[in-house]
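Every protein is a chain of amino acids, and every chain bends into a shape of its own. Below is the pair of lines this work produces for a single protein:
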Amino acid sequence: MNVLLRTLTVVRCSRTTLSTHIRSSSTFGIVFDVDGVLLRGKASLPGARDVLLELQATNIPFAIMTNGGGYTEDKKARQMEQILGNGVSIPTELMCMSHTPMRELAAKHGDELVLAVGKDCAELRNVMANYGFKHVVTVDQLHRHFPTMYPDVKVTDLLVHDGRFDSQPFAAVFVLIDPIYWGRELQIVMDVLCSPNGLLGRRTVEGDGNGDRQHIPLYSACSDFQYVGEFHLPRYGAGAFHAVLENLFTHTTGHTLEKTLFGKPQRTSFEFAETLIDAQHEDVERIYMVGDNPKTDIHGANEAGGRWKSLLTLTGMHNGPSNHDEHPAYKVVEDVAQALAFIKQDFAKLQAEKSTK
């Protein structure tokens, strides 16, 4: 398994579908992060609504790329519209959640039994079903089948075990977002990852590193170690959960956890976002990433290179006022409104330089 899925085939959004929302005459596009750029928790950040309304009015291609997840792209778009207020329209087709590119993996695992990890079990199953996965079991469901797998969380509504886990192996583990009960999820995910070819009940991947290696793949979305919300200090996110899982796996087995990562700063997510922008215009010369997290938004855009330019806001993870040392942005701006003003100026300068050549 590759650490990073670099050859993911990305499904392009239908230009016909998107054109019902946006008919663009612009030659640049903007990709926005959400938390710390447009929103902070359940509140809109200053300038966010006006920026999106201007983009809609002027037909400038834009997309939303967030490391949030655990529910459908449509639900996230509707939530954002409600917070941002009347007049703002965010088509579902313009949303890239941390796990959105995972839908391509349905071609490989869609007919197999997979374990899904996250917060809301019903939402997880809905997301996976929308992507084309037909046999999804959540950690909560597995725990309700086998309450003694994690006795510290009491099970009140048991599910009858029909014997299928004795003969039907898990083919993969999908972490869509960090869970609520970290202890339970870590234990049960480890049980599955260390099982012989995905069959529950015993472990063959454990010891000093000389035993069997990991038999089934782990796909993990969202690399945000921390994020900003309504609380004044950063909170740990799915990246922190993944770090704990990785350390636990190595400590238990002696092996390095093999995984495929999705979400920013992974290239797969930036490639996917490009398709959302390109579906709105035939000739997008430059794509601006507006984000607040140097380690995900800025790092990812810088690594993507080419048409990408990164703008770092001071309304989220990075307080500034100077640029980030390890992952410097193309431009540091106060907020999303200043970002749009700079983008228009920068692109006009690019066009002027081209006209003089």
In short: The longest helix spans residues 336-355. Confidence is low (pLDDT under 50) at residues 1-17, 19-25. The longest strand covers residues 170-175.
